[in-house]
Amino acid sequence: MKQALTAGAAGLLFALGLGVGGMTDPAKVVGFLDVAGAWDPSLAFVMAGALGAYALARGLILRRAAPVLADTFLEATSASVDGRLVAGAVLFGVGWGLSGYCPGPALVVLPVGGLTVALFVVGMVAGMGVFRALVKQPG
Length: 139
What we know:
Layout: H1 2-21, H2 26-33, H3 42-61, H4 83-99, H5 103-109, H6 114-134
Helix pairs in contact: 2-4, 5-6
């Protein structure tokens, strides 16, 4: 129960940060991605702030012997860049650039975002289902 409450609180904090930072506004996101046109660099500051907070928190967290809500820290099993990683990154970027949404902000604005956001989320979930059906998951 403690893990679920902590995850829920973290999700709410993340949603609040996305909203306050303007990451839920597709026009702002597309403006940030339009580096050859009317580029809006404001989201770079949001991302830099998030990376700074992450770097500080990670340093403090890894000083602990174990996580608060788990037995051990989970670490990436691979550091290699392969075709699947690159293809996934390209697909994510194209989807983000075309729609102005990535998964987190889309879920945050889903209750009030209208048909466009709903279609994006349906497409995202369908894509995850297709991936799960076609690709054997490790473990």
